[in-house]
TrEMBL record, chain A:
SUPFAM superfamilies: Cyclophilin-like, PH0987 N-terminal domain-like. InterPro entries: CT_C_D, Cyclophilin-like_dom_sf, PxpB. Keywords: ATP-binding, Hydrolase, Nucleotide-binding. The lineage of its organism: Bacteria, Pseudomonadati, Pseudomonadota, Alphaproteobacteria, Hyphomicrobiales. This is Carboxyltransferase domain-containing protein.
UniProtKB/TrEMBL annotation, chain B:
NCBIfam families: urea_amlyse_rel (TIGR00724). The keyword Cell wall biogenesis/degradation does not apply. Residues 139-149 have a biased composition (Basic and acidic residues). Residues 135-173 are annotated as: Disordered. It comes from Pleomorphomonas carboxyditropha. This is Allophanate hydrolase. It comes from the Bacteria. One of its GO terms (molecular function) is hydrolase activity. SMART domains: AHS2. InterPro entries: CT_A_B, Cyclophilin-like_dom_sf, PxpC.
Length: 217, 318
């Protein structure tokens, strides 16, 4: 099981370690990946260590680090990575539930708005990865009853602060941008501030709970 | 200080971009043609991390209130300093009050204007690059417009000789229609043999959807035999994704830091500049190379730039 991984080239100066084995997202493997990420970050010649969902991309200076050596380092690191890595911080994020999608979203699942809110705010989410947009958290732990396909047509401007779900994942919009996910509410929680040295508020390994600040039915 | 007299919103302050923040969702940004940026900085005696102006909207005009060294590289465009024509890939001394005008390119898409001392906007997240998509960095997090005044850093000692100095274009730049060299990426084996063959034999047309985020191509549909959903993963500039439409998208400087589309290949670092110079309607071709060839190409450019920096320093006069 521990050897169930693939390492592929992502150009001249990056490698992608994929430990998903083509299957569904796995929390245990993610915890091990984050421990591996921490052991690589900041090493000489390594530019970026990017956890994804059950994968890890490492970007390096290919004129300083041999790709073959980097590949062995990833493979060996994955085999010995323990899940005890990051402690992670706990965040509580207040959400005003409502917005353009909430009622239709509930109806499409055969649930009431209150049931959707209760299930969404009832879960403890894990920040699996940060990416795509500045500070955007990929949250795992969504109640499977709230898993739905994305919207057929993405919205051009989903506003900053929108609390969203798509497929089996949850997230929060750090900036106004296009997205095909469903909007369940809004938060004033700041996810990204480029003027801080660590610009993203959430980190992979953190946990998130949503607190009900109001429901517009 | 320099003063912008006319500009489009696509013109921005750029350097070599941000490193180390992909895991915060912060893209690299930076110049779309880093080679041309490097050459411009070398010619005026700047550090390689100095910021310059990426010009993608024309005509562009700026004024030098004080004497300054200026280099113009990248796309081949008519450039005039105080009414005198500047040859391509050239640097010279601008005198106080001189105006620089750059007309639309005849070859390529982006011109780089470096000024001695570099554009000294405050660094943000380790770079002076503008992230136009997210609106931070560079000059007030936006493209340049008329009336903007950009501060300059201290210029290196000495000045350019009378008439200025020029560089030959970096190796391989003068070869028209050379294919973009790529390394196969994670999902390469999942595409049909016919699709892989089409990928490297067909010409791919650059569509109108080409900007600092990415470049969408048109051509035959590339069929992926194994239709499994991928989990989101980190991507780098140069990643060639194939969405369900079967037409490739190449992710560039301001791409999202994670994606979920299958990746057929990655354009090698040494060839990324060509996507910064591609115009809608251009035809691109791909050729698969080995990692050793990709490294050799990168090393060749790096060595050439080192020699250019040394040579440019020799031409400086007291």
């Amino acid at each position: 099981m521990a050897d169930d991984f693939i390492i592929s080239d992502a150009g001249t100066g990056a490698l992608l370690l994929d430990v998903a084995g083509g299957g569904a997202f796995d929390e245990g493997r993610q915890a091990r990946l984050l421990a591996l990420a921490d052991s690589l970050a900041g090493a000489d010649g390594i530019d970026d260590v990017v956890p994804g969902m059950n994968n890890l991309m490492v970007a390096f200076d290919p004129l300083a680090i041999d790709a073959g050596a980097m590949q062995r380092r990833l493979a060996d690191g994955w085999r010995i990575a323990a899940a005890s890595g990051r402690a992670g911080r706990a965040h509580e994020i207040a959400v005003a539930y409502g917005g353009p999608d909430l009622r239709d979203f509930a109806a499409s699942l055969g649930l009431t708005v209150d049931e959707v809110v209760k299930r969404h705010a009832g879960a403890v989410y894990k920040v699996a990865a940060i990416g795509a947009m500045p500070g955007f958290p990929y949250l795992s732990g969504l109640d499977p009853a709230l898993a739905t396909p994305r919207r057929a047509m993405p919205r051009q401007g989903v506003p900053k602060g929108a609390v969203i779900v798509g497929g089996g994942q949850a997230g929060i919009m750090p900036i106004t941008a296009p997205s095909g996910w469903h909007i369940l509410g809004h938060t004033d929680f700041t996810l990204f501030d480029p003027h801080r040295a660590a610009p993203a508020t959430l980190m992979a390994g953190d946990t998130v709970r949503f607190i009900i600040a109001g429901v517009e039915r | 200080m320099i003063e912008i007299l006319s500009s489009g919103a696509l013109n921005s302050v750029q350097d070599r971009g941000r490193r180390g923040l992909l895991s915060s969702g912060v893209c690299r940004s930076g110049a779309m043609d880093i080679q041309a940026l490097d050459v411009a900085n070398a010619l005026v005696g700047n550090d390689r991390d100095a910021a310059a102006i990426e010009v993608a909207a024309f005509p562009f005009r700026l004024r030098f209130p004080d004497r300054a060294a200026v280099a113009v590289t990248g796309a081949i465009a008519g450039a005039r300093l105080a009414g005198r024509r500047l040859p391509p890939w050239w640097a010279t001394e601008a005198l106080a009050g001189d105006e620089l005008t750059i007309d639309p390119p005849t070859v390529g898409a982006r011109v780089y204007v470096a000024v001695g001392g570099g554009i000294d906007v405050p660094p943000l997240l380790g770079a002076r690059a503008t992230d136009l998509k997210s609106g931070y960095g560079g000059h007030e997090g936006r493209g340049l417009r008329r009336g903007d005044r950009l501060p300059l850093g201290p210029r290196s000692p000495g000045k350019l000789p009378d008439g200025g100095i020029g560089a030959l274009p970096p190796p391989g730049r003068d070869v028209a229609d050379r294919p973009l060299r790529v390394l196969p990426a994670a999902e390469w084996p999942e595409f049909s043999e016919a699709a892989r063959e089409l990928f490297v034999t067909e010409g791919w047309r650059v569509t109108a959807e080409a900007d600092r985020q990415g470049c969408r191509l048109d051509g035959p549909e590339l069929i992926r035999e194994r239709r499994r959903e991928l989990l989101s993963h980190g991507i780098v500039p140069g990643t060639v994704q194939v969405p369900p439409s079967g037409r490739p998208i190449i992710q560039l400087a301001e791409a999202n830091t994670c994606g979920g589309y299958p990746k057929i290949a990655t354009v090698i670092e040494a060839d990324l500049w060509r996507l910064g110079q591609a115009m809608p309607g251009d035809t691109l071709r791909f050729a698969v190379v080995s990692r050793d060839e990709a490294l050799a190409a990168l090393g060749e450019t790096a060595g050439w730039l080192d020699r250019l920096r040394s040579a440019a320093a020799l031409y400086r006069v007291p």
